[in-house]
Design a protein that fits this description.
Blueprint (H helix, E strand, L loop, with lengths): L1 H43 L3 H10 L1
């Protein structure tokens, strides 16, 4: 019975670590993507790059 608890704890810890790492990676990716689009909007002084980015995402 103790072996089962050890495996459950290991599985839970790996799930939590994977979830947190995935969250951090996706947060960084979309943060950089947003900053790139914001720079394009600033350079063109228009929201057209933002609209085209939203079209690509959907």
């Amino acid at each position: 019975m103790d072996d089962v608890m050890v495996y459950i704890v290991i599985g839970l810890l790996t799930f939590i670590i994977g979830f947190l790492l995935g969250y951090l990676v996706l947060k960084e990716y979309y943060s950089r993507r947003f900053l790139r689009v914001a720079r394009q909007c600033e350079q063109s002084r228009s929201i057209v790059p933002l609209i085209s980015e939203l079209e690509q995402e959907s």
